[in-house]
Amino acid sequence: MEELGMERVKKEIIPEFAVEGTLEETVPYGSGHINDTFRLTCTLENGGQKRYILQRMNDDVFKNPVELMENVMNVTSYLRKKIVERGGDPDRETLNVIPTKTGDNFLKDERGDFWRMYLFIEDASSFDMVRTPEDFYNSAVAFGNFQLLLKDYPASTLHETILNFHNTVSRFSDFKKAVEEDVCGRAKEVPGEIRFVLEREADTHAICDALADGTIPLRVTHNDTKLNNVMIDNQTGKGICVIDLDTVMPGSALYDYGDSIRFGASTGAEDEKNLNLISCDLGLFETYTRGFVEGCGGSLTQEEIRMLPMGAKLMTLECGMRFLADYLQGDVYFKIHRPEHNLDRARTQFKLVADMEQKWDEMAAIVEKYL
After folding, report:
1. Among 37, 172, 184, 283, which is least packed by CB within 10 angstroms?
2. CB of 124 within 8 A of CB of 276?
3. Three-state SS sequence of 81-103
4. pTM of the model
5. Radius of gyration of the chain (CA)
6. Per residue in 90-126, pLDDT tens?
7. What separation in angstroms does the CA of 285 have from each of 198, 212, 250, 281, 369?
8. Sign of the C-alpha dihedral computed for residues 267, 268, 274 and 275 taken in this order
């Protein structure tokens, strides 16, 4: 995607959307790495203010923005209805797409860029890091609640915005291909890491096979359940809205749960070089499990709950596979800030997987409490 000029955004893009009031300010916003995001502030006739989020969608990552926005519109419309039914505030508890002046859900500009706009969620914040166990618990309840609200949504009708995103069998196949091709000649430097993945091929089938044979249900999944994709109410500290619906697709609730554990229950940074600092914090594991199951409000099956530790392990293994494959391919997908950055990331994920394996019985016992 080419660089953006702020003047172009103000003159060519914003006037195409059905915003209320007079535009006063446009500023870059948030910490996302995929889309270009701006916050708009408009003054209303009564002197009040209304704010919006404008995004240029990254069609290098999301190849079909039309299908992506179809998913977003269908899911948010459904969520609005459910939120209203239970007496909630649909302007704050789900994303609200602002149409263009011609009534479309997105804008395709003359350069071929795709744009969308949302209502800004007021009096709420998102956080990049877990500050307290309560933050982690509240995000768990929010992602669980997302599952609960969408439990009857026909998941199979959603488009796959990134093909095989959490298909661990497919990811394993991609990893083996990267090892075999070894385009940068790096495989000889990392035989232990490669072996670590290859020895766990059977694990990569666990969720895919359970979905295929109906052991666990196909669900609407968020697929990027980091803490910063939950808006936390500034007054109550509760998670009120799940945002960033670009990867909403058919999948397993275990994907959403597992990715949160991978990210939030680790005792170290994703790219920590000192692996002695990396482990799975069982206190945080239990905190998130409790919140997620509570948020799901009885919508998870017994088998899904039993498989929660496998969700945590597999999402961590998958991420490590992807980091290592990218390292072998010359760091073409994930942004790096130093040589071997992707290798460091892969090693932290594998250390976390190994630690989970050592704590497997304890993780299973924690999960058993919530059956």
Report:
1. 283
2. no
3. HHHHHCCCCHHHHCCCECCECCC
4. 0.94
5. 21
6. 999 999 999 999 999 999 999 999 999 999 999 999 9
7. 26, 27, 25, 6, 13
8. positive
